[in-house]
Structure to design on (852 residues):
């Protein structure tokens, strides 16, 4: 069963990040399914028609996102209909819903152009949009593939992720669950603290024994991003017990090799894992951030329920605020500089006292692009750690642009916290 | 001239966000060029071969990202060579560089698998990788398109954005600049404070007069994300003066209609525009963040040089920290709740005093998924604002998931700051 995704919108070709592809890819992956291809195509009818034709030929299930909006450049519905030689009609019920939505949210009359969103392809099932005015559509159709007519399914989903995701969950997922034959499960293990190529050398014996390269039932992949290495493997078969046993065995053996460097799997993030460990240990954490300026706090509170282990933080970007808000000594700043192990330690101690948290982390560094010197280059970061027993600092040399340095700093700080909590437990 | 992008990596089909496509799309857009298509394809040789063939047929310039790494699933080089019937050779100079890199950064011997990265396609030019071990490659070749042989160019770029971007800038951009014929310029205007469909209704007369729908030399698009509406237009022609005049005229007329709701263009963000206005006015800002927990500070410091107008912030997630760090009254929290205009005001006043900033902004709200009630639903957010003259609060009802509510809050706070600075100026 081939599933492919077409994301429409000229903005995707001109710099807009496509988060829908990532969202749908990860949902399918969690179901043991996979996308065979993702195509981003602009809002020109000829381009979209061509991609539709090609997708209808080669795939069984075609999902599109975008182009259901009210404006002139939203052409997905009419183009799909044209490609399949089907009529459009204005659905009265949807028209009524759109009008009600406008009365409720905008307290004004419906803009004429929003009426376009009620256009439905003849024969399509309407998919309710709980977070916007554009309905989705599901259509079963026949299309000639390799000389014979095949039954296919097309899903038209809206572009805004907040509308697309719930519709995908309530309409596409149940359909796919009914379609799938055989069992295939995907696993992703997240590793921190080892380089990508070293991870491969370390796990290669395990992969080989599992049939890597020979067996079609086990596939592997390795990927690095912001110092996090993902080991991905998928196991397929007809007997769920055997598939699960293979997965558990692989997890166990990767764990033996990589130990605590594996920090989680699937949807786990360094923030969610650190959060879970804090919760289990009934501990709290606070940050004193300079170069990351709130990113560590934002990461840890990205997890719902984080108020149970995160109370407060201070962002001290300037030297004055490091002294005034965190009690860093003027002498320390003068002697060692704002980017130093000593300052990182005093920052951590400062927020530790101020916040009444069990653990305190600090980060001070040179994120770039400016501010680097031969002695203290861009990418130099100190992370401080304080608890009731002691205060430490750790030195890092990250490379990359400003964004990378800041994100790697957050990851390193969260991983440090994670390892402290694990060490405490054992 | 058709330019297309193929991003390789099974992770892109399984949930990983493709930032390379966005980066390359925006760089091309800034040059007045555009991608005709983006395809994300997995690490399977057959799939990649098929996409290569199709891209070589239909496009003039083919750019790939990813698959140059050291591990077994990095197959871009060998697959491109196979598709074009060309040999591979191990480049001695690159091999030496890779060995040196490992000695310098890892202080260990080179892992055997990293040697694969020295494989170069016969006839290709090596593109230096300043931030990693995998070199890029540029290859001119002939390929049959519609029955006749055409000259094409292939760029193989690494997957990690930190390596890809500088290589794109130093190798692909100069090449493209030499290739382009005619003039085409893209403009994106960013709007905040009006709904997408209202924006279209407001600007339609201007678009029509500019030849919207009739003229091929002016194209328009509208896109909404996180309450930000982008109006995109591209103007093409042979005379640069006329192209520029058309652009300036459109900008002027859109400005007349949308006024201060247009906050910037191109690479401007709400954070960079607010930052620029602070700098011009020699003013500083601080935040007291609850529901956004550092995201506003992270956004404003995303801009290099922001230390000139941003000094410090406090993240007060719990009620205790709102009282202790910001001086919010216990009585206020008890009577109105943490999510209220009154608390937002006291938070803003608290950070205003503590930080010695000229402006203070606060945010307190219910980001969800939990914590909502009938009276105070998920998405309810209060933003506080304080300066030397007065303190105000503003109420918002955002919809969307946790991430959306938090990001929309940050955008609303930055826009509020921007409007205050504009009002001050006039």
């Amino acid at each position: 069963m081939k599933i492919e995704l077409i994301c429409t919108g000229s903005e995707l070709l001109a710099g807009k990040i496509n988060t829908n592809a990532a969202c749908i890819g990860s949902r399918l992956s969690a179901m043991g399914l996979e996308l065979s291809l993702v195509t981003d195509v602009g809002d020109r009818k000829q381009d979209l028609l061509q991609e539709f034709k090609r997708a209808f030929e080669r795939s069984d299930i075609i999902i599109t996102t975008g182009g259901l909006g009210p404006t002139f450049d939203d052409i997905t519905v009419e183009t799909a209909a044209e490609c399949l030689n089907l009529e459009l009609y204005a659905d009265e019920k949807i028209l009524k819903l759109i009008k009600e939505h406008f009365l409720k949210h905008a307290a004004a009359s419906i803009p004429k152009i929003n009426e376009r969103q009620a256009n439905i392809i003849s024969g399509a099932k309407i998919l309710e949009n709980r977070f916007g005015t554009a309905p989705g559509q599901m259509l079963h159709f026949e299309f000639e593939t390799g000389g014979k007519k095949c039954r296919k399914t097309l899903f038209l989903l809206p572009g805004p992720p907040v509308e697309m995701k719930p519709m995908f969950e309530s309409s596409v997922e149940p359909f796919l669950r009914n379609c799938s034959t055989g069992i295939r499960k995907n696993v992703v293990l997240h590793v921190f603290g080892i380089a990508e190529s070293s991870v491969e050398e370390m796990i290669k014996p395990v992969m080989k024994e599992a049939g890597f390269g020979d067996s079609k039932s086990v596939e592997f992949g390795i990927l690095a991003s912001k110092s996090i290495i993902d080991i991905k493997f998928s196991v397929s078969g007809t007997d769920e017990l055997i598939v699960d046993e293979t997965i558990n065995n692989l997890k166990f053996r990767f764990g033996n090799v990589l130990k605590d460097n594996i920090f989680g799997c699937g949807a786990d993030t360094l923030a969610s894992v650190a959060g879970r460990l804090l919760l289990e240990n009934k501990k709290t954490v606070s940050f004193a951030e300079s170069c990351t300026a709130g990113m560590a706090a934002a990461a840890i509170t990205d997890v719902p329920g984080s108020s149970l282990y995160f109370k407060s933080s201070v962002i001290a970007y300037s030297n004055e605020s490091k002294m005034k808000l965190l009690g860093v000594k003027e002498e320390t700043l003068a002697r060692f500089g704002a980017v130093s192990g000593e300052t990182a330690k005093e920052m951590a101690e400062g927020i530790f006292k101020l916040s009444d948290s069990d653990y305190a982390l600090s980060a001070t560094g040179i994120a770039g692009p400016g501010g680097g010197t031969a002695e203290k280059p861009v990418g130099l970061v100190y992370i401080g750690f304080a608890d009731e027993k002691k205060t430490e600092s750790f030195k890092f040399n990250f490379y990359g642009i400003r964004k990378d340095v800041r994100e790697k700093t957050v990851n390193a700080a969260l991983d440090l916290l994670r390892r402290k909590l694990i060490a405490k437990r054992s």
Summary: Residues 183-265 of chain A form a domain with the Alpha-Beta Plaits fold (CATH 3.30.70.2860). The longest strand of chain A covers residues 136-145. Chain A has a mean pLDDT of 92.
